């Protein structure tokens, strides 16, 4: 049995022999434990931890396209509604939503031609101030192989308007999360199986035994790669409950904040 989604609501999926998933509806904010009563189940009934989040207004997203003198730019404003829909699908795991607040354009040829230079990027992300939300600047280049970059308390840079994963990942940095890796230079790759020690109690659930969320012998590296905050663009969209052990950007192995516990649930740029 595992958590799933049915009709936009949390559900317990029992496998192919089930006639339908069992819908779980939260009636009030808080953390609870659900006991699944299964006919003919031998042993203690499986339990699942879950959290219901309080309602919050969507976080405003302000987009600005950096153009050349003729108005040319990368990306398209037509992509933005679909981009935000994709981001909202990811952040539903954390009970957060986003909404388009504005779209603007600026003609600045030096920014357009030199957007990969750090001091130029810092000029760009300071264009919009005090918006009460998050500002996303669409630029031609950031760095070789880099499609997004976050400047805390200032703004985000992206090189396209179609990747919800990249935008969601950069927003994650504004929520206080850090990149997590399965390997770093001069560090051994993480080949060990996942264990209770690698996860928060909420993510391990009620194991050891048949009640933990993850199958036996699943590699730690596989779980890390599923995370939204995996440090490569090939990462997944999962937002766990708590931190996960892995390598941080500096190559230190330990608990890396990538989950809802302790996150900034109302990210915005302060200036």
List keywords for this structure.
12 strands, alpha/beta, 3 domains, three-stranded antiparallel beta sheet, 271 residues
Explain the layout of strands and helices.
Layout: E1 2-6, E2 9-13, E3 22-24, E4 30-35, E5 47-52, E6 59-67, H1 80-91, E7 98-107, H2 109-113, H3 118-124, E8 134-138, E9 148-151, E10 155-158, H4 164-174, H5 201-204, H6 220-226, E11 244-247, E12 253-256
- Overall domain count: 3
Q: What is the succession of H and E elements?
A: EEEEEEHEHHEEEHHHEE
Unreliable sequence segments: none
- CA distance, first residue to last residue: 46 Å
At the fold tier of CATH, the topology name of the largest domain is Collagenase (Catalytic Domain)
Hey, roughly how much beta strand do the residues contain? 15-25%
**Oligomerization:** single chain
**Rg, nearest Å:** 21 Å
CATH architecture classification name of the largest domain: 3-Layer(aba) Sandwich
What is the strand tally? 12
Report the principal-axis shape: globular
Helix count from the secondary structure assignment? 6
The H-level CATH homologous superfamily of the largest domain, spelled out, is: Collagenase (Catalytic Domain)
Roughly what percent helix? 10-25%
Q: State the name of the first-level CATH class of the largest domain.
A: Alpha Beta
Instruction: Please state the average pLDDT score.
Output: 91
- Helix and strand composition category: alpha/beta
Would you kindly provide a written description of the structure presented here, covering whatever features stand out?
The chain has 271 residues and is α/β, with parallel strands linked by helices. The chain folds into 3 domains: 2-52, no CATH class; 59-174, 3-Layer(aba) Sandwich (Collagenase (Catalytic Domain)); 176-271, no CATH class. The chain has helices at residues 80-91, 109-113, 118-124, 164-174, 201-204, 220-226, and strands at residues 2-6, 9-13, 22-24, 30-35, 47-52, 59-67, 98-107, 134-138, 148-151, 155-158, 244-247, 253-256. The strands form 4 sheets. A 5-stranded mixed sheet has the order 7-6-8-10-9, sandwiched between helices. Strand 1 and strand 2 (9-13) form a beta hairpin. The longest helix is centred in the first third of the chain and has 12 residues, at 80-91.
